[in-house]
Design brief:
single chain
């Protein structure tokens, strides 16, 4: 791990405050125009990203490279293929193409970008760091950190109930957000940065009309369980492989400090 400027209690408190401020900001911005809301929200997300970068002292999980095993390389390839397949299954290419025909393309883009920056810096940034510290003596440190931070990511989506989204749709959203959260953590560990995770999150959220009506509709549970259960399994196996590799090479682990 990288030495942080903020202790884990400060990081946890900071995450809570920044999330509550976002909720308050959304209430305050509600009477304003769509573009104005999107610009202010994007500005707040960038501000939060800067604060978290300062708190963590880096965007990296580690300072130096560790030994790559053939199994880890294989798992990295499988994670990458899974991510690409998920993009096509979710219809992301078509979804993005429709944005360019949207009358609200500017606000849609800013809203998706602000959500990606804010949520990733909070969940895969601060909260992942918090759980890394809390799980520092565990054999599966990164795996547990990914799961716990992803659980928080999923729970955050229950706030959509306040906006009128249906209970079943919200439960499904929280479920696949948890699975994606573990996948995003795996990507962050693999790439050793938050940059790629923010980009992937942005592309998934970037859709026509998201700034107008972000509410989701429910889908068949079978598809969600099969697709996102597979995503969860692949990402978790990769993280476990990383943890086991670090346990076998303690010298590499100490170089992270």
């Amino acid at each position: 791990m990288v030495k942080k400027r903020w202790t884990w209690p400060q990081q946890l408190f900071g995450a809570l405050v920044m999330v509550l401020l976002l909720f308050a900001l959304d209430i305050f911005l509600r009477p304003l125009g769509l573009t104005t809301r999107s610009i202010v929200r994007a500005g707040y997300a960038i501000l939060v990203a800067g604060i978290i970068y300062h708190a963590l002292n880096t965007l990296k999980v580690r300072r130096q490279k560790f030994k790559q095993t053939s199994f880890i390389v294989t798992m990295m390839i499988i994670v990458s293929v899974t991510l690409i397949l998920l993009f096509f299954i979710m219809g992301i290419p078509y979804q993005i193409s429709q944005v360019f025909h949207s009358p609200t393309i500017i606000s849609d883009t800013l809203m998706a970008l602000s959500a990606a920056i804010f949520e990733e810096f909070i969940c895969r940034g601060l909260l992942f760091s918090v759980f890394e510290e809390l799980c520092k003596n565990a054999k599966l440190q990164m795996t547990l950190s990914a799961i716990f931070s992803a659980a928080a990511f999923g729970l955050l989506h229950f706030v959509n109930l306040i906006g009128g989204q249906g209970v079943e749709a919200t439960l499904q959203q929280a479920t696949y957000a948890f699975c994606l959260g573990v996948l995003f953590a795996a990507v962050r560990v693999a790439t050793n940065t938050l940059t790629w995770v923010v980009l992937i999150h942005f592309l998934i959220d970037w859709q026509s009309g998201i700034s107008v009506s972000p509410a989701s509709s429910s889908s068949p549970w079978v598809g969600i369980v099969v697709i996102f259960g597979t995503v969860l399994a692949v990402a978790t196996l990769y993280l476990i492989a990383m943890d086991l590799n670090l346990n076998r090479h303690p010298l590499s682990k100490r170089r992270w400090q």
